[in-house]
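Hi everyone, sorry if this is the wrong subforum. Our group has a chain we'd like a structural model of before ordering constructs, and none of us has done structure prediction before. Sequence below.
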Amino acid sequence: MQPTSSPKTTLLIALLYCIFLLSGCGYTNPYNTNNKLAKDGEGQVDLYLDMWENKTNLLGFQATIQHDLIIWLKKSNRFHLTQNRDESDYILSGIIQSVNQPALTYGAFERATTLRAEVNFSYKLIDRETGKVVFTQERIAKETTYSMGSDAVRTNSNLKKALGVMSEDLADNIYIQLFYLFTLDTSQGNRIIIPTDDIEGLE
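Answer:
Right subforum, don't worry. Here is the predicted structure as tokens:
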């Protein structure tokens, strides 16, 4: 009778195999703030962040996204954020396309107690010199829940906090995507676009 591997042993082997593959492919941890660049700065990307267009009634949400993108992109010396778009290599822009806020749960007298915000985004990266779109992401959907307050002011405050978490998560995803776009190498020297749905597996 042949011995069988335990689930823990199988998981360990799979993990070691993944580490071997990643190390062989030149994997770089995007959360390592000390990623090596040449002393002359070669490999650093000059990036301009356009203020996102906001087509919804979520007033000021575009400024929240801009703020979180700046924080995330400054975590790596791979990126240099420029104040002038004419001095950039690439331009990142986006659109807050739509928002839906259905009630999720109800309390007494059919009064909503928990609401959900469903927001759709799109964004793209443009090569400033050529005007070519390097990549574009359409119909990125994210959702969050928040509590109905005792009045409109408290409800809006709860929504703002929930949207803040959503914005940070979106900025994190974009950072991961851009980091790998400008870090991973291929045999043909092509850029690698990490699909949005696969980003969480790389973190």
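For your construct planning: Strands lie at 45-49, 53-54, 79-81, 90-100, 103-106, 112-127, 133-147. Confidence is low (pLDDT under 50) at residues 15-27, 36-41, 186-190, 192-203.
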